[in-house]
Amino acid sequence: MTERLGIIGGSGVYRIDDLEDAKWVAIDTPWGPSSDEILTGTLAGTPMAFLPRHGRGHVHSPTTVPYRANIDAMKRLGVTDIVSVSACGSFREHMAPGDFVIVDQFIDRTTLRDTSFFGTGCVAHVSLAHPVCDRLRGLARKAAEGLGVTLHDGGTYLAMEGPQFSSMAESRMFREVWGADVIGMTNMPEARLAREAEICYATVAMITDYDSWHPDHGSVDITEIIRVLGANADAAAGLVRSLAGAGAVPHAPCPHGCDRALDHAIMTLPERRDPELVARLDAVAGRVLG
Length: 290
Ligand SMILES: CSC[C@H]1O[C@H](OP(=O)(O)O)[C@H](O)[C@@H]1O
Ligand SMILES: Nc1ncnc2[nH]cnc12
Hints:
Blueprint: E1 4-9, E2 20-25, E3 38-43, E4 46-52, H1 67-76, E5 79-90, E6 100-102, E7 105-109, H2 134-144, E8 151-153, E9 156-160, H3 168-177, E10 182-184, H4 187-196, E11 200-209, H5 222-231, H6 233-244, H7 275-280, H8 282-289
Parallel strand pairs: 1-4, 1-5, 5-11, 6-8, 7-9, 9-10
Antiparallel strand pairs: 2-3, 3-4, 5-10, 6-11
Helix pairs in contact: 2-6
The structure holds the ligand CSC[C@H]1O[C@H](OP(=O)(O)O)[C@H](O)[C@@H]1O and adenine.
Subunit structure: Homohexamer. Dimer of a homotrimer.
Site (Important for substrate specificity): 166, 222
Catalytic activity: S-methyl-5'-thioadenosine + phosphate = 5-(methylsulfanyl)-alpha-D-ribose 1-phosphate + adenine
Protein backbone atom coordinates (compact mmCIF):
# COMPACT_ATOMS: atom_id res chain seq x y z
CA MET A 1 0.00 0.00 0.00
CA THR A 2 1.15 3.57 -0.68
CA GLU A 3 2.59 5.17 2.44
CA ARG A 4 1.17 8.58 3.23
CA LEU A 5 1.84 11.55 5.47
CA GLY A 6 -1.29 12.32 7.47
CA ILE A 7 -2.33 15.79 8.55
CA ILE A 8 -5.17 16.29 11.01
CA GLY A 9 -6.34 19.86 10.72
CA GLY A 10 -7.95 21.43 13.76
CA SER A 11 -10.07 24.54 14.20
CA GLY A 12 -9.66 26.84 11.21
CA VAL A 13 -7.82 24.21 9.12
CA TYR A 14 -10.46 22.45 7.02
CA ARG A 15 -8.63 21.81 3.74
CA ILE A 16 -5.21 21.91 2.17
CA ASP A 17 -4.59 23.42 -1.23
CA ASP A 18 -2.26 22.58 -4.10
CA LEU A 19 -2.65 18.79 -3.89
CA GLU A 20 -2.11 16.97 -7.17
CA ASP A 21 -4.79 14.37 -7.94
CA ALA A 22 -6.83 15.71 -5.03
CA LYS A 23 -9.76 13.51 -4.09
CA TRP A 24 -12.03 13.40 -1.03
CA VAL A 25 -12.50 9.73 -0.13
CA ALA A 26 -14.89 8.07 2.33
CA ILE A 27 -13.32 5.23 4.32
CA ASP A 28 -15.44 2.58 6.04
CA THR A 29 -14.17 1.72 9.49
CA PRO A 30 -15.37 -0.75 12.13
CA TRP A 31 -15.56 2.23 14.52
CA GLY A 32 -18.08 4.17 12.45
CA PRO A 33 -17.55 7.06 10.03
CA SER A 34 -14.59 9.41 10.36
CA SER A 35 -15.15 13.12 11.03
CA ASP A 36 -15.42 13.72 7.29
CA GLU A 37 -14.09 12.29 4.06
CA ILE A 38 -10.31 12.36 3.83
CA LEU A 39 -8.55 14.46 1.22
CA THR A 40 -5.90 12.41 -0.58
CA GLY A 41 -3.40 13.52 -3.18
CA THR A 42 0.27 14.37 -3.65
CA LEU A 43 2.12 17.42 -2.38
CA ALA A 44 5.82 18.03 -3.18
CA GLY A 45 5.91 14.44 -4.43
CA THR A 46 4.61 13.09 -1.11
CA PRO A 47 1.39 11.08 -0.90
CA MET A 48 -0.84 12.86 1.63
CA ALA A 49 -4.03 12.22 3.59
CA PHE A 50 -5.70 15.25 5.16
CA LEU A 51 -8.56 14.99 7.64
CA PRO A 52 -10.40 18.02 9.03
CA ARG A 53 -10.84 16.90 12.64
CA HIS A 54 -14.11 18.70 13.20
CA GLY A 55 -15.35 18.04 9.66
CA ARG A 56 -15.76 20.66 6.92
CA GLY A 57 -17.98 23.37 8.36
CA HIS A 58 -16.91 22.44 11.93
CA VAL A 59 -19.58 19.86 12.76
CA HIS A 60 -18.00 17.81 15.59
CA SER A 61 -17.34 19.12 19.09
CA PRO A 62 -14.11 18.04 20.78
CA THR A 63 -16.12 15.40 22.68
CA THR A 64 -17.93 13.97 19.65
CA VAL A 65 -14.98 13.82 17.25
CA PRO A 66 -14.86 10.11 16.27
CA TYR A 67 -11.22 9.69 17.26
CA ARG A 68 -11.07 5.92 16.78
CA ALA A 69 -12.65 6.04 13.33
CA ASN A 70 -10.30 8.87 12.33
CA ILE A 71 -7.13 7.01 13.28
CA ASP A 72 -8.39 3.73 11.84
CA ALA A 73 -9.29 5.44 8.55
CA MET A 74 -5.84 7.03 8.33
CA LYS A 75 -4.25 3.64 8.97
CA ARG A 76 -6.36 2.07 6.21
CA LEU A 77 -5.11 4.75 3.81
CA GLY A 78 -1.47 3.83 4.52
CA VAL A 79 -0.71 6.75 6.84
CA THR A 80 2.50 6.10 8.79
CA ASP A 81 2.98 9.56 10.31
CA ILE A 82 0.41 12.11 11.52
CA VAL A 83 0.98 15.77 12.28
CA SER A 84 -1.83 17.48 14.15
CA VAL A 85 -2.20 21.21 13.53
CA SER A 86 -4.21 22.52 16.47
CA ALA A 87 -5.45 25.78 17.96
CA CYS A 88 -4.34 26.13 21.60
CA GLY A 89 -4.41 28.51 24.54
CA SER A 90 -1.11 29.46 26.16
CA PHE A 91 -0.08 29.25 29.81
CA ARG A 92 3.22 31.03 29.21
CA GLU A 93 3.79 34.75 28.75
CA HIS A 94 6.48 34.11 26.10
CA MET A 95 4.21 31.76 24.09
CA ALA A 96 2.09 34.49 22.55
CA PRO A 97 -0.91 34.39 20.21
CA GLY A 98 0.39 33.75 16.69
CA ASP A 99 3.35 31.65 17.92
CA PHE A 100 3.73 27.94 17.13
CA VAL A 101 4.72 25.39 19.80
CA ILE A 102 6.21 22.02 18.81
CA VAL A 103 4.60 19.98 21.58
CA ASP A 104 6.51 17.15 23.26
CA GLN A 105 4.25 15.95 26.10
CA PHE A 106 0.58 15.60 27.00
CA ILE A 107 -1.56 15.67 30.12
CA ASP A 108 -4.97 14.09 29.54
CA ARG A 109 -7.92 15.59 31.42
CA THR A 110 -10.57 14.31 29.02
CA THR A 111 -13.29 12.13 30.52
CA LEU A 112 -16.00 11.35 27.94
CA ARG A 113 -14.16 9.66 25.07
CA ASP A 114 -13.19 6.20 23.87
CA THR A 115 -9.52 6.11 24.67
CA SER A 116 -8.46 2.74 23.25
CA PHE A 117 -9.07 0.37 20.35
CA PHE A 118 -8.54 -2.55 22.72
CA GLY A 119 -10.73 -3.91 25.54
CA THR A 120 -12.46 -7.02 26.78
CA GLY A 121 -11.35 -9.96 24.66
CA CYS A 122 -8.19 -8.28 23.39
CA VAL A 123 -6.29 -6.34 26.03
CA ALA A 124 -3.20 -4.35 25.07
CA HIS A 125 -0.91 -2.00 26.97
CA VAL A 126 1.33 0.23 24.86
CA SER A 127 3.91 2.64 26.27
CA LEU A 128 2.89 6.29 26.32
CA ALA A 129 5.84 7.71 28.25
CA HIS A 130 6.78 9.63 25.12
CA PRO A 131 3.46 10.17 23.33
CA VAL A 132 5.03 12.39 20.67
CA CYS A 133 7.37 10.78 18.14
CA ASP A 134 10.66 12.60 18.55
CA ARG A 135 11.74 12.07 14.95
CA LEU A 136 8.49 13.44 13.53
CA ARG A 137 8.61 16.30 16.05
CA GLY A 138 12.07 17.22 14.72
CA LEU A 139 10.75 17.22 11.16
CA ALA A 140 7.80 19.37 12.20
CA ARG A 141 10.15 21.84 13.90
CA LYS A 142 12.33 22.09 10.77
CA ALA A 143 9.25 22.49 8.59
CA ALA A 144 8.01 25.34 10.78
CA GLU A 145 11.32 27.23 10.60
CA GLY A 146 11.27 29.96 8.01
CA LEU A 147 7.49 30.44 8.11
CA GLY A 148 7.95 33.81 9.77
CA VAL A 149 6.28 32.76 13.02
CA THR A 150 7.91 32.56 16.45
CA LEU A 151 8.60 28.92 17.25
CA HIS A 152 8.89 27.23 20.65
CA ASP A 153 10.63 23.87 20.71
CA GLY A 154 8.89 21.72 23.31
CA GLY A 155 5.85 22.19 25.50
CA THR A 156 3.31 20.19 27.46
CA TYR A 157 -0.21 20.18 25.98
CA LEU A 158 -3.07 19.74 28.43
CA ALA A 159 -6.15 18.20 26.82
CA MET A 160 -9.38 19.25 28.55
CA GLU A 161 -12.85 17.88 27.86
CA GLY A 162 -14.53 21.16 26.99
CA PRO A 163 -16.44 22.39 25.14
CA GLN A 164 -16.48 25.27 27.64
CA PHE A 165 -13.12 26.93 28.26
CA SER A 166 -11.41 26.62 31.67
CA SER A 167 -12.29 28.58 34.75
CA MET A 168 -9.63 30.98 35.99
CA ALA A 169 -8.88 28.67 38.93
CA GLU A 170 -8.36 25.71 36.59
CA SER A 171 -6.25 27.81 34.25
CA ARG A 172 -3.98 28.86 37.14
CA MET A 173 -3.75 25.32 38.47
CA PHE A 174 -2.82 23.86 35.06
CA ARG A 175 -0.11 26.47 34.65
CA GLU A 176 1.30 26.90 38.13
CA VAL A 177 0.83 23.46 39.69
CA TRP A 178 0.70 21.05 36.77
CA GLY A 179 3.30 22.75 34.60
CA ALA A 180 1.28 22.66 31.38
CA ASP A 181 2.35 25.08 28.63
CA VAL A 182 -0.58 24.98 26.23
CA ILE A 183 -4.21 23.86 26.39
CA GLY A 184 -6.54 22.35 23.83
CA MET A 185 -9.44 19.91 23.69
CA THR A 186 -8.56 17.35 21.05
CA ASN A 187 -5.09 15.89 20.94
CA MET A 188 -6.02 13.28 23.52
CA PRO A 189 -7.09 10.56 22.99
CA GLU A 190 -5.89 11.11 19.41
CA ALA A 191 -2.22 10.64 20.38
CA ARG A 192 -3.04 7.51 22.44
CA LEU A 193 -4.90 5.95 19.52
CA ALA A 194 -2.16 6.82 17.03
CA ARG A 195 0.32 5.00 19.26
CA GLU A 196 -1.96 1.95 19.47
CA ALA A 197 -2.22 2.03 15.67
CA GLU A 198 1.59 2.23 15.43
CA ILE A 199 1.45 5.62 13.69
CA CYS A 200 4.09 8.25 14.56
CA TYR A 201 2.33 11.35 15.93
CA ALA A 202 3.36 14.97 16.52
CA THR A 203 1.53 18.23 17.24
CA VAL A 204 2.09 21.78 16.10
CA ALA A 205 0.13 24.01 18.48
CA MET A 206 -0.93 27.35 17.01
CA ILE A 207 -1.36 29.70 19.95
CA THR A 208 -4.57 31.69 19.73
CA ASP A 209 -5.02 33.12 23.26
CA TYR A 210 -3.81 33.24 26.87
CA ASP A 211 -6.67 31.12 28.20
CA SER A 212 -8.01 32.67 31.42
CA TRP A 213 -5.00 33.11 33.71
CA HIS A 214 -3.38 36.23 32.29
CA PRO A 215 -4.09 39.37 34.34
CA ASP A 216 -3.72 41.64 31.28
CA HIS A 217 -5.72 39.60 28.78
CA GLY A 218 -9.05 38.93 30.44
CA SER A 219 -10.76 35.65 29.66
CA VAL A 220 -10.51 33.62 26.50
CA ASP A 221 -12.77 34.90 23.76
CA ILE A 222 -13.82 32.85 20.71
CA THR A 223 -14.00 35.92 18.47
CA GLU A 224 -10.37 36.67 19.17
CA ILE A 225 -9.44 33.00 18.61
CA ILE A 226 -11.10 33.05 15.19
CA ARG A 227 -9.30 36.30 14.33
CA VAL A 228 -5.90 34.81 15.24
CA LEU A 229 -6.68 31.61 13.32
CA GLY A 230 -7.52 33.69 10.24
CA ALA A 231 -4.31 35.67 10.58
CA ASN A 232 -2.37 32.37 10.84
CA ALA A 233 -4.01 30.65 7.86
CA ASP A 234 -1.06 31.31 5.53
CA ALA A 235 1.47 30.07 8.08
CA ALA A 236 -0.60 26.91 8.65
CA ALA A 237 -0.75 26.29 4.89
CA GLY A 238 3.01 26.94 4.61
CA LEU A 239 3.63 24.49 7.44
CA VAL A 240 1.74 21.73 5.63
CA ARG A 241 3.63 22.44 2.40
CA SER A 242 7.02 22.23 4.05
CA LEU A 243 5.98 19.17 6.08
CA ALA A 244 5.26 17.44 2.79
CA GLY A 245 8.85 18.07 1.73
CA ALA A 246 10.35 17.12 5.09
CA GLY A 247 10.98 13.44 4.31
CA ALA A 248 8.69 11.71 6.84
CA VAL A 249 7.39 9.57 3.99
CA PRO A 250 8.56 7.10 2.73
CA HIS A 251 8.67 5.98 6.33
CA ALA A 252 11.99 4.57 7.57
CA PRO A 253 11.72 2.39 10.72
CA CYS A 254 10.98 4.71 13.63
CA PRO A 255 14.07 5.03 15.88
CA HIS A 256 11.73 5.40 18.85
CA GLY A 257 9.66 2.32 18.02
CA CYS A 258 6.29 4.05 17.48
CA ASP A 259 5.73 1.77 14.49
CA ARG A 260 6.41 -1.35 16.63
CA ALA A 261 4.38 -0.25 19.66
CA LEU A 262 2.28 -3.43 19.65
CA ASP A 263 5.24 -5.82 19.52
CA HIS A 264 4.81 -7.01 23.13
CA ALA A 265 1.64 -5.16 24.08
CA ILE A 266 -1.15 -7.70 23.68
CA MET A 267 -1.85 -9.61 26.90
CA THR A 268 -4.83 -11.74 25.94
CA LEU A 269 -3.96 -15.32 25.02
CA PRO A 270 -4.84 -16.14 21.39
CA GLU A 271 -7.40 -18.77 22.48
CA ARG A 272 -9.12 -16.27 24.80
CA ARG A 273 -9.45 -13.46 22.24
CA ASP A 274 -12.86 -12.20 21.13
CA PRO A 275 -13.05 -12.87 17.37
CA GLU A 276 -15.36 -9.90 16.83
CA LEU A 277 -12.95 -7.46 18.45
CA VAL A 278 -10.00 -9.06 16.67
CA ALA A 279 -11.84 -8.54 13.37
CA ARG A 280 -12.39 -4.85 14.19
CA LEU A 281 -8.67 -4.52 14.84
CA ASP A 282 -7.72 -5.67 11.33
CA ALA A 283 -6.22 -2.34 10.27
CA VAL A 284 -4.94 -1.07 13.60
CA ALA A 285 -3.32 -4.30 14.83
CA GLY A 286 -3.32 -6.60 11.81
CA ARG A 287 0.49 -6.59 11.82
CA VAL A 288 0.61 -8.44 15.16
CA LEU A 289 -2.77 -10.19 15.19
CA GLY A 290 -2.13 -11.79 11.78
C1 LIG B 1 -11.99 27.14 18.31
S1 LIG B 1 -11.42 27.20 19.94
C2 LIG B 1 -11.59 25.61 20.70
C3 LIG B 1 -11.31 24.42 19.83
O1 LIG B 1 -10.12 24.68 19.06
C4 LIG B 1 -9.22 23.62 19.29
O2 LIG B 1 -9.50 22.61 18.32
P1 LIG B 1 -8.39 21.81 17.52
O3 LIG B 1 -7.48 21.17 18.52
O4 LIG B 1 -9.12 20.81 16.71
O5 LIG B 1 -7.64 22.86 16.70
C5 LIG B 1 -9.55 23.16 20.69
O6 LIG B 1 -9.00 21.88 20.97
C6 LIG B 1 -11.03 23.21 20.70
O7 LIG B 1 -11.60 22.07 20.09
N1 LIG C 1 -7.87 28.50 25.76
C1 LIG C 1 -8.18 27.38 25.13
N2 LIG C 1 -8.61 26.30 25.83
C2 LIG C 1 -8.91 25.15 25.20
N3 LIG C 1 -8.83 24.99 23.88
C3 LIG C 1 -8.43 26.03 23.15
N4 LIG C 1 -8.23 26.17 21.83
C4 LIG C 1 -7.80 27.40 21.59
N5 LIG C 1 -7.71 28.11 22.76
C5 LIG C 1 -8.08 27.27 23.74
